[in-house]
Specification:
single chain, alpha+beta, 32% helix, 19% strand
Length: 583
């Protein structure tokens, strides 16, 4: 939050140091009227007084700001933070919910940790360090306060206040109201609550999952997180709500139930209550669509929570480019798998990671590779793939600059007769032009592949010793792709440098594929470029739910998947080639 500030931060004294904020209590005769005054002090994490931590959405626009006083200096903060501070100041930390244990005594500490004010956001070195200890900060707080906003900020603000109170009603053992009837009256309000912008923030994942205790605050109402846990478990049972307990004319349907169960708050609660499984790869996949300002935070915001990142091997570093972060995470992922053979999972994880970043990594790829010592430019990633066929012919080249010039009748004439093989869809071709523009020819000399049954140590060592020249891996011409037909009748798209006789290989668990060409030694393949393989009708019908989300063919889409010895291909890839093939 790089906003205009009259306050100058003094450096933190040690690696254990943090800043805590104290919000001035407003006299009872002036509540809500006076300015917000805060004082900031340094503490060591090991000897800090009891404190709370604030979890909130920064907001998309830094132009809407309001002033507070920090150590008597004027500081401009975003409006959502100002509202949270005003609420804390007004309530004097006395957030009363329906549970007696949630009433705070006056003698309780009023220290609070807020990232935007307790971290010098202009100091990259400090940000690196403080982001690295945020897990300890949120985990060590006596309570995390979740600020969801004010009624006036939302069209259905009053309804959301009702939803917060309804959560407690469904978990109140003394309530005379049937939970099903409470749900029937309030399901639209509950859905509005769980669709607030706050839930889309990536940083809340660790803030929620590591908290010892959580209180949700919305305007003048509040509730405990355990009510969300109870509601999720109640809603997850097949017998709730009981149709006989719903009132006549109820508008609650199974579709409403499904919408609620898909909410991000419930996904957070599953991770929060999980005793295992919070590893980095799973977390990145689970929260890949969550929002953050800096794409590097798609990794850094999850490190403190990830069980496999507690050895310090991955550390936040905002001096690094996005490609360097990608490289760090891929190396971390492959080293943590402890697999002696080729990895079946790395291509899938690389694709998930890039889709989480939602940015083009290619700009930093060349710079990264050129900085490496020549000895480190070797193909260090050992990957497994499965051949799905050999290209027999090209049906037509596609001019990506003038896609409207393609004759739709051509597709009908070339459709395979086998009902298990997909016909080439003209409409799908037009819809997939962005993906086809990624089919850029490769000229890499730092990666190769070998048919697995010929992968002797001698053959591999001979290719690893071959001098690895390095230049631009991707050729520049992106104006044309080729529609291919494989020897088994399958179809797809390839870069324009592909030739009949080339082999198309798919990677497991994703829709990434590549075109290979036999070299002088017929056992060794050069990598021609990326490929797109059409789904077969059988795949469309039998694919498991995880595989249906992919637009292109996935080899192991169902339980009956297997491969023969002749299909198995082993790759040795450098990072730049892996990144390109799994775009």
């Amino acid at each position: 939050m790089n906003l205009k500030s009259g306050y100058r931060y003094s450096p933190l004294e040690s690696s254990d140091s943090i800043r805590l904020l104290q919000v001035e209590n407003v006299p009872s005769t002036a509540k809500g009227r006076g300015p917000i005054r805060c004082w900031i002090r340094h503490f060591s994490l090991s000897n800090a007084p009891p404190y709370r931590a604030l979890s909130y959405a920064w907001g998309p626009d830094s132009s809407s700001t309001k002033k507070i006083f920090l150590n008597d200096k004027i500081v401009q903060v975003r409006r959502n933070l100002w509202e949270a501070l005003a609420h804390i100041q007004f309530a004097c930390f006395d957030f009363r919910t329906r549970e007696k244990e949630d009433v705070f005594a006056e003698e309780n500490s009023t220290w609070v940790w807020i990232d935007a004010l307790c971290i010098d956001q202009s100091n990259v070195k400090e940000r690196n360090h403080q982001v690295g200890v945020m897990g300890r900060i949120y985990g060590g707080a006596t309570e995390v306060l979740v600020w969801l906003g004010c009624e006036a900020d939302f069209r259905h603000g009053a309804r959301i206040s009702v939803a917060v109170e309804a959560l407690a009603l469904m978990n109140d053992d003394k309530s005379v109201q049937d939970p099903s009837q409470v749900l029937d009256r309030n399901h639209e309000a509950l859905l509005a609550l769980f669709q607030l912008p706050y839930w889309q923030r990536l940083w809340i994942v660790q803030e929620i999952c590591l908290a010892a205790k959580i209180t949700l605050l919305f305007d003048k109402v509040s509730t405990n997180w355990k009510n969300i846990t109870h509601f999720r478990k109640l809603l997850s049972t097949t017998c709730f709500p009981n149709k006989f307990s719903l009132p006549p004319g109820s508008t609650f349907t199974s579709a409403h139930k499904a919408d609620l169960l898909r909410c991000q708050a419930f996904r957070l609660d599953k991770h929060r209550t999980s005793s295992h499984g919070n590893v980095l790869g799973y977390l990145i996949e689970s929260f890949h669509s969550s929002l953050c300002t800096d794409p590097r935070d798609k990794v850094y915001a999850l490190i403190s929570l990830a069980e496999d990142c507690q050895n310090g091997q991955l550390q936040p570093n905002y001096f690094k480019t996005l490609f360097q972060v990608y490289a760090d995470v891929i190396h971390f992922y492959t080293s943590s798998r402890h697999s002696r053979g080729p990895s079946q999972h790395t291509p899938r994880f690389s694709q998930i990671l890039q889709r989480a970043f939602q940015c083009d990594l290619s700009a930093g790829a060349m710079e990264y590779q050129l900085r490496l010592h020549p000895s480190l430019r070797q193909p260090t990633l050992h990957i497994f793939g499965v051949s799905c066929g050999m290209i027999t012919k090209f049906i037509r080249g596609i001019d990506l600059e003038s896609p409207s010039s393609i004759d739709p009748a051509w597709y009908k004439d070339t459709a395979p007769a086998d009902p298990g093989i997909p016909s080439i869809s003209f409409s799908k071709h037009l819809a997939s032009l962005p993906e086809q523009r990624e089919l850029v020819p490769l000229q890499t000399r730092t990666s190769f592949a070998v048919q697995a049954k010929y992968a002797s140590r001698t053959l591999i060592e001979e290719n690893m010793r071959t001098p690895m020249s390095f230049g631009d891996i991707l050729l520049e011409d992106r104006s044309q792709t080729l529609q291919f037909l494989l020897d088994n009748g399958r179809t797809g798209c390839a870069p324009y440098n592909a030739l009949p006789g080339d082999v198309v290989v798919q990677f497991l668990g994703c829709d990434a594929a590549t075109v290979l060409r036999r070299g002088r030694d017929s056992r060794v393949f050069d990598i021609v470029g990326k490929a797109l393989v059409e789904k077969g009708k059988r795949e469309e019908k039998e694919a498991e739910p995880w595989a249906r989300k992919y637009k292109w063919g996935v080899p192991d889409y169902g339980e009956r998947f297997s491969w023969t010895e002749d299909q198995a291909v082993w790759f040795w890839l450098d990072l730049v080639t892996l990144q390109y093939l799994t775009l």
